[in-house]
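Let us begin with a simple case.
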Amino acid sequence: MKARIQSVDFLRGATIMLMILVNTPGDWSHVYPTLLHAPWDGLTLADFVFPFFLFIVGVSISFVYHNKKISKPIVKKITIRSLKLILLGLFLNFFIPYLPFFTGVGEVRIPGVLQRIGVVFFIVSLLYLVLTQKQLLSTAILILLGYWIWMVYIPIPGIGSPTLERASSNWAAFVDYTLLYGHTWQPDYDPEGILSTLPSCVTAIIGAFIGRVIKSTRSKKHITLLIIGTALVLVGYVWSIFFPINKALWSSSFVLVTAGYATMILGILYYIMDYKKRSFGAVVTYVGANGLVIYFLSSLIAKSFYLLNLNTDQSIHHYLFTAFFTYPSINLKLSSLIYALVVVGFYTVLGYILYRRKVFIKV
């Protein structure tokens, strides 16, 4: 690319910052509902974080592999990057800050955020390279329709008619229970499980299409993005009548609604930052420049702070929160939010320092 697309960099950075905000409250028992994932069906602010990031992965795929043909060197690079992401995700699941540093293999969770990003990046990158635009669109539609039919209408062996409830009677839980028993986030489901990876690929595919629009020579691309985004949201909400919006299942309606909102927000940002050339929030783009590394560090440090105890038998996290962020005059939910905002501020400063020193760590 001859020039950076400022709106994409800004959206990437903002998504990482929101991801850290959602993942590091001061007290999980006191969190504003919109910063928690929906208990099952529904949509909160927290539920937008991961699909937005996969959407941006798709946009980036279209930028990197625009007009390129599949070849052994390209496949090798894609494979290596995917494996790096998967291994980093597994490391986070295994890691504890004590000798022997790793939990037993029999207890560790196998799925995860970085694992899903790695798998989706691998699949969508290869599809983008080998399929035409029409074939890629047809593939996305077939996946969403096929996933809906599979989840709603195909009987589960030994159980019968499937449901969309949080139980082993839904296909996603059944597949995870069968293939990953004892290695999931919860005994009855995993939000980054095996089956829901299929529709999550469509989130990235939509991002790749949006990347094509941005790379095109057409004028007033922001209008095109707003039209596409609005159409996706409307179709998604209509579909939700039959296949509810659900992040844990990554339902087809969830794909369309979240990708639609991402497209509309990107359209607005593109109009302001790339069409009108009005720059703002540079520090947010600095975070996006090392987004995956900052996310990995935030997860690793947060987990360490929960597990490492001080002499008072308090974890570092609990000590910091109670000592510096809790006051009788402040609501605990607000204290918990302030803690999370301070953590976001810390990684924002880190992103700024890395950017100013021209340190860009690629995974």
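The second case is a distinct protein. As before, the sequence precedes its structure tokens.
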Amino acid sequence: MDAEKMNAVNKAVRKQLILSVVLSCMLVAGIPMIIFGASNRIWLVMGAGILFTVLGFYGTPMAWVSYGNKVGLRRVVYAVTREHLLAVEKISAQLGKPEKNIRALLDECFQKGYLPGYVRQGDTISLNEAKAPEETLHAAVCPYCGAKYTYRGTEEPVCPYCGAMSEKKGE
């Protein structure tokens, strides 16, 4: 299960790494393309070189900074899922970052869905024990035959013994 939780953040880190490398290569390849295209009057190559250089020049720094941020998020997810550090104070001590920064990183991890199955309550993190309504079992007593039975939250309460329908609680 921990591998599934790490999978989403690892995928995001991998995508960002690929983008960063591609933009870096575009920057490096763009300048020779401009020179080659201009000297041989191949305007398409020169235009592509200009485009590569501009995208690489402006995109590379932003992509690498974003990659670093995603690696930081991955480290927080690892601390929670693998090291079982479930308090902001403990994560902060482990990572050597201020608690304020850890809170912001945790907010981002929860917002991006990198910590499914966990809930944050203030400065503590715990496993989400809540069940979806379709998974919740309810107890019922048949008003006609008196039999005790259970039904799922999304089902109608029908007695399995006499077939009579009961009313759902709270309705």
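Residues 43-81 form the longest helix (39 residues). The chain has a mean pLDDT of 89.
Keep these points in mind for the review questions at the end of the chapter.
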